[in-house]
């Protein structure tokens, strides 16, 4: 449960950062090398258990010009 909540929080943080940068899911997907928006859209909402991996997060942070640690704000790994 803690890990699932962490994935949800990270997805929400990515979405917030993407929106603040003024990018669509399609634009961000293309910028990190994906032809489909499914990686970004599903991970942002944690659909069907999909989540970002560390490579995605580092690429997204680079595209958005932010530190990847911002995606982990609010993540709690202790009960």
Descriptive labels:
globular, mainly alpha, 57% helix, 79 residues, 4 helices, 434 Repressor (Amino-terminal Domain), 0% strand
Detail the topology: elements first, then pairings:
Blueprint: H1 2-20, H2 25-31, H3 38-45, H4 54-64
Helix pairs in contact: 2-3
Q: Sketch the topology as an H/E string, one letter per element.
A: HHHH
Structural class: mainly alpha
Q: Give the radius of gyration.
A: 12 Å
Q: Strand portion, in percent?
A: under 5%
- Give the CATH topology: 434 Repressor (Amino-terminal Domain)
> Helix proportion of residues, in percent?
55-70%
**Which stretches are poorly predicted, pLDDT < 50 over at least 5 residues?**
none
The tally of beta strands, per DSSP, is 0
CATH superfamily: lambda repressor-like DNA-binding domains
Structural overview:
The chain is 57% helix and 0% strand. The protein is globular. Helix 2 (25-31) crosses helix 3 (38-45). The model has no long low-confidence stretch (mean pLDDT 93). It contains four helices and no strands. The protein has one domain (2-68): 434 Repressor (Amino-terminal Domain) (Orthogonal Bundle), CATH 1.10.260. With 79 residues, the protein is mainly α.
């Amino acid at each position: 449960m803690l890990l699932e909540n962490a994935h949800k929080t990270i997805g929400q943080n990515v979405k917030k950062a993407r929106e603040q940068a003024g990018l669509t899911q399609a634009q961000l997907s293309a910028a990190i090398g994906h032809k489909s928006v499914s990686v970004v859209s599903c991970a942002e909402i944690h659909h069907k258990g999909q989540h970002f991996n560390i490579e995605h997060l580092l690429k997204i942070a680079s595209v958005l010009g932010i530190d990847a640690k911002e995606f982990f704000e609010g993540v709690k790994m202790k009960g």
